[in-house]
């Protein structure tokens, strides 16, 4: 999929809206930044006259408009009813994130997008709401709401992806599950969730690039695919294990640090839910991994497909190095 040069302007305004939202001293300025972010992302979705893209853009606009309405209404009540106003703003930001129990829209919109469009939806669009949530961590009630939402997101993200056969929905529920780790990290300190968000952004973006290069949208597309090089056969499954947090891949590093911090803060119950959900997510990653490796044989040359995408060969060394950093350089991680 090729993008017009004019879309660079919308991407720059999208970044500008995010920066405006997180740097604004008032909720009105943050609301303006979020609105600029929404209005910049919708043209990036509707890149062509496609009914699926139009439906996804309409759903995204309605959900985000509802959340923005709640934010501006709650900010008006912040002087009259401060606790209630803070809780409403927090729920509106959770709706913008797609965190449980407001996750219903996220997998449906992911299903209607192409792989390059899912990357900002899974990463950049979550940055400003997460920052604004971290600003609200000033009372025990807000912390309890975030911990509850994080625990629900862990269960929803793990159980929702079990019976999924569509790769974009699997990545959507995986994003909801990783959102739970970030929400729990927000309740601790800002450094933790920024560290986890950075790792998640790089790993999930690399997997979306791999899926886009393989033109894979369904689990059967991976099972029917047969590449001529075994390196291609191993990169995607092992990258999925890195996203799942299996040691010693790179995705295990932020989870390892989070486990230690949660134990030090005596948050045993949320940690138990996060670890249980991580095991379930590893199960549906392994469901992709095992047939992907067993059914791919280089000897089946009559069914071999060559990868035409040049971006795949360009990004492949960086994807391998980052996702397999724990295998290549395990000693720095042992001392963490």
TrEMBL record:
GO terms for biological process: mitochondrial electron transport, NADH to ubiquinone. Its EC number is 7.1.1.2. The lineage of its organism: Eukaryota, Metazoa, Ecdysozoa, Arthropoda, Crustacea. It comes from Austinograea alayseae (Crab). This is NADH-ubiquinone oxidoreductase chain 2. Core subunit of the mitochondrial membrane respiratory chain NADH dehydrogenase (Complex I) that is believed to belong to the minimal assembly required for catalysis. Complex I functions in the transfer of electrons from NADH to the respiratory chain. The immediate electron acceptor for the enzyme is believed to be ubiquinone. Belongs to the complex I subunit 2 family. Keywords: Electron transport, Membrane, Mitochondrion, Mitochondrion inner membrane, NAD, Respiratory chain, Translocase, Transmembrane, Transmembrane helix, Transport, Ubiquinone. The chain crosses the membrane at residues 60-81, 87-106, 143-163, 194-219, 231-250, 284-302, 314-334. The gene is ND2.
């Amino acid at each position: 999929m090729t993008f017009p040069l004019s879309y660079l302007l919308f991407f720059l305004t999208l970044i500008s809206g995010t920066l405006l939202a997180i740097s604004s001293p008032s909720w009105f300025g943050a609301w303006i930044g979020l609105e600029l972010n929404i209005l910049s992302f919708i043209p990036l979705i509707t890149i062509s006259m496609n009914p699926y893209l139009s439906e996804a853009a309409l759903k995204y606009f309605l959900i985000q408009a509802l959340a923005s309405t709640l934010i501006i209404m709650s900010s008006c009540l912040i002087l009259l009813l401060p606790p209630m106003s803070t809780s409403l703003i927090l729920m509106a930001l959770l709706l913008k994130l797609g965190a449980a129990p407001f996750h219903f829209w996220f997998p449906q919109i992911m299903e209607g997008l192409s792989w390059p469009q899912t990357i900002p939806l899974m990463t950049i669009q979550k940055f400003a709401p997460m920052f604004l949530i971290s600003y609200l961590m000033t009372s025990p009630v807000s912390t309890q709401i975030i911990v509850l939402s994080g625990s629900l997101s862990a269960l929803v993200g793990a159980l929702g992806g079990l019976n999924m056969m569509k790769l974009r929905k699997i990545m959507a529920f995986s994003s909801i599950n990783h959102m739970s780790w970030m929400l729990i990290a927000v309740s601790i300190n800002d450094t933790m969730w920024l560290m986890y968000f950075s790792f998640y952004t790089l790993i999930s973006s690399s997997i979306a690039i791999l899926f886009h290069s393989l033109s894979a949208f369904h689990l059967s597309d991976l099972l029917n695919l047969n590449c001529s090089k075994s390196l291609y056969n191993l990169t995607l499954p092992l990258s999925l294990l890195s996203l799942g947090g299996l040691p010693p891949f790179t995705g295990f590093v932020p989870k390892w640090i989070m486990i230690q911090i949660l134990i030090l803060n005596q948050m045993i119950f949320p940690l138990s839910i996060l670890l249980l959900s991580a095991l379930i997510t590893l199960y549906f990653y392994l469901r992709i991994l095992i047939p992907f490796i067993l059914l791919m044989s280089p000897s089946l040359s009559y069914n071999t497909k060559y990868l035409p995408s040049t971006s795949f060969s360009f990004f492949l060394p960086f994807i391998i190095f980052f996702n397999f950093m724990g295998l290549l350089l395990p000693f720095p991680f042992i001392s963490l």
